[in-house]
Design goal:
seven-stranded mixed beta sheet; alpha+beta; five-stranded antiparallel beta sheet; elongated; single chain
């Protein structure tokens, strides 16, 4: 009996020993990696270190957009559910205090805590003081299922200022429009990673080793925009919008020698800090469009600059040659009237531009011919994207050569029947102001990247060379004509004594869709514009003003010219145009 007990004890002891050995072998050899990973998952916290998005500054270094450090809070729902089981609590126990600390609705928090997924973002873009309050609550309530990570907030200090140019970012800090979208790859940088041991409240242990791969911050973007000139055009556009009860106002100011855009505004606009707030999708799409780039229009008489330049360049008209206007002209049996049916009589090419004579412009286009006219449209890059560094650029619509019938040639010569973009028109004006060479408009000048070692790399974003379009003599002649139309003409509302302004106005009927779905020219809606620059002797700036559907007056000479004059006067105080 004693012997059987002895062997029973031996067998049981041996069995227990073998079982423990087998378990030890399983834990240390067979399941070692799996158990290690499980343990690490409980004590290690892996956090993304978001790269700081590059700042956007004007040409003088004034801040236009930047990113500030913020935080995000995620919920480990698997750990949260185990917590509820152990404590016999409901999710609602935590919903109210979380909502109070984070400034959220209780129902929203509860919905996230009861999600069926394994993890959920509780809130993003949280500032430091809020996170500090949350950490205090976590310690008091023994919370072990929240993960506090890094985030950032994109901040536009001037609100609506330059909004359609700067654009906006989404919740993840990705550019979704404007420069933020166009240069997203340069601005966003490369995220890093941080792995550290934590206690059960997910607090980082101070004595543990931290594995960290630092983030590479995004490049800072330096623009050609001048903050002071931008302020001038913003203020001017607001005044024009209010005075004329216009549907929209667009103003562009540039340096014709460099192609740099100094100021650009479209009204109405939006606040890129909260771009979608209080707006439907359609409403936002409407106000976020950059008309200067994304849309085209019939330019009216401002296009006569292109027609007359081409004719001068081809030598089909002379500087002292005269053209006769009886107030109308017939083309293939179709009567085309001059401005206000006015008969201008005999005039030189300079007079044609000054008088904005449709009849003489048609005669000039007829001498040039459809083939050459079409050739110069392409030289000036009408009907094609200019390549400006903003997204969604339109091309405009011009006639193919085979469609340039005598009627189409005639109406196109003075800015009807074809559409252009504001950017294309200012490129054409700059070509004349820059001695016949076109330097494409651009908004960003350079990008500066500071690496983790503090070394700075500069990337030039404007490497395009000028394109010769006109001879210097043709450009000089056109500039003189434009000066004669404005700077030598006290009756012109853009005239300023002491500042030699050059320019041309335009008035174009808008195309609308009638009740039958057919497109036609409106008798009530117009686009009024002015394009020009100063000073005539050595152009420092060029200006394009477009007032869309003014409700009081319609003519560009009355509506747009006075606002161009205001811009010249204001800029003169800053840059001196005399």
């Amino acid at each position: 009996m004693k012997k059987s007990r002895y062997w029973a004890v031996i067998i049981i002891t041996f069995s227990v020993f073998m079982g423990l050995s087998a378990r030890l072998i399983y834990v240390t050899v067979i399941a070692r990696d799996e158990i290690l990973l499980k343990a690490q998952s409980q004590i290690l916290q892996k956090l993304a270190l978001p790269a700081k998005r590059g700042s956007i500054v004007d040409r003088n270094g004034s801040l236009l957009a930047s990113s500030t450090e913020a935080y995000r809070v995620d919920v480990d729902l698997a750990t949260f559910r185990r917590k509820l089981e152990k404590t016999d609590r409901e999710a609602s126990y935590y919903a109210a205090p979380f909502a109070e600390v984070l400034g959220m609705e209780v129902d929203e928090v509860l919905s996230k805590l009861t999600s069926e997924s394994t993890s959920v973002i509780l809130k993003r873009k949280i500032e430091k003081d809020t996170v500090d309050a949350l950490r205090a609550y976590i310690g008091e309530a023994n919370v072990d299922f929240l993960v506090i990570g890094y985030d950032d907030i994109r901040y536009f200090p001037n609100s609506n200022y330059l909004s359609q140019v700067l654009g906006a970012v989404n919740i993840d800090g990705e550019g979704i429009m404007g420069l933020e979208y166009y240069y997203d790859d340069l601005l966003k940088g490369v995220d890093g990673i941080k792995i550290a041991e934590t206690d059960k409240q997910r607090r980082e242990l101070p004595y543990s080793d931290v594995i960290e791969t630092p983030a590479i911050n995004g490049s800072d973007l330096y623009l050609t925009i001048d903050e002071k000139i931008q302020y001038i055009v913003e203020k001017t556009a607001e005044a024009a919008m209010e005075k004329h009860e216009a549907d929209s106002v667009t103003i562009l100011v540039s340096d014709p020698k460099t192609g740099g855009v100094l100021g650009l505004v479209n009204l109405p606009d939006f606040d890129p800090n909260k771009p979608f707030e209080g707006k439907t999708s359609d409403e936002f799409n409407e106000i976020s469009r950059n008309f200067a780039v994304n849309d085209s229009y019939e330019p009216g008489s401002t296009f006569k600059i292109v027609t007359i330049s081409a004719a001068l360049e081809e030598g089909v008209i002379g500087e002292h040659e005269h053209f006769h206007c009886d107030g109308f002209i017939y083309v293939n049996g179709v009567r085309i009237k001059c401005v206000n049916n006015k008969a201008h009589g005999d005039q030189t090419a300079a007079d044609v531009l000054k008088n904005s004579c449709n009849v003489a412009t048609v005669q000039i286009a007829q001498r040039l011919g459809a083939e050459k006219f079409n050739e110069y449209l392409k030289k000036f890059q009408f009907g094609a994207k200019s390549g400006i560094d903003l997204p969604g650029e339109a091309s405009g619509i011009i006639f193919n050569l085979e469609d340039l019938t005598p009627i189409n040639l005639a109406t196109s010569s003075f800015g009807q029947a074809q559409t252009v973009t504001p950017v294309q028109m200012l490129n054409a004006m700059n070509t004349v102001a820059n001695g016949g060479e076109m330097i494409q408009l651009h908004v960003a000048e350079k990008a500066e990247l500071t690496d983790v070692n503090g070394e700075i790399t500069v990337k030039d974003l404007n490497e395009e060379e000028g394109i010769p379009i006109l001879s210097k003599s043709t450009a000089e002649s056109m500039l003189e004509y434009l000066y004669g139309a404005t700077g030598k003409n006290p009756r012109n509302r853009a005239y300023i004594e002491g500042i030699n302004v050059f320019g041309k106005t335009g008035t174009a009927q808008k195309i609308i869709t009638d009740e039958n779905g057919k497109q036609k020219y409106s008798d009530e809606e117009y686009i009024s514009s002015f394009i020009g620059g100063a000073p005539y002797e050595d152009p420092k700036i060029t200006v394009l003003v477009i007032v869309n559907n003014p409700k009081d007056e319609i003519f560009g000479s009355i509506v747009a010219s006075p606002w161009a004059r205001e811009i010249f006067l204001e800029v003169d105080q800053y840059l001196s145009l005399r």
